[in-house]
Amino acid sequence: MAKKRKSRGRGKGSKGKAKLVQCDNCGAWVPRDKIVRVTRWVSPVDPQLEKELKAKGAIVPKVPITKNYCVSCAIHMGLRVVRSKKERKESYTRL
Ligand SMILES: [Zn+2]
């Protein structure tokens, strides 16, 4: 069977089965090595208030929020882009 990607869109290798993780956007169950994991540093403070606090010299803490997305959602959100056959073969990335 022809392979679209060297990794088959996963980072599993010959490991066998990978545990399933739920997509944070649509709720689909996806293997852990196939998900698109995004970490954003988000401030718990309101953006307007944060701006004012920063202007006065305060240090506003930020909290890392990690989210797991399935490939469909990642493409929809623009985290991953659909590449042509040539582009897919040129550089090897996880997805
Ligand atoms: Zn999803």
CATH architecture: 2-Layer Sandwich
Counted beta strands: 4
Enumerate the distinct ligands: zinc ion
Query: How big a fraction of the residues is strand?
Result: 15-25%
The largest sheet has its strands arranged as 1-2
Number of helices: 3
Cα end-to-end separation: 19 Å
Helix fraction?
10-25%
Q: Give the C-level CATH assignment.
A: Alpha Beta
Low-pLDDT regions: none
CATH T-level topology: first zn-finger domain of poly(adp-ribose) polymerase-1
| Average predicted confidence as pLDDT | 89
Please give the radius of gyration in angstroms. Answer: 18 Å
Largest sheet entry: 2 strands, antiparallel
Principal-axis shape: elongated
Number of domains: 1
Please write the string of helix (H) and strand (E) elements. EEEHEHH
- Find the structural class using helix and strand composition: alpha+beta
Per CATH, the superfamily is: Ribosomal protein S26
Which labels suit this protein?
alpha+beta; 4 strands; first zn-finger domain of poly(adp-ribose) polymerase-1; 23% helix; two-stranded antiparallel ribbon
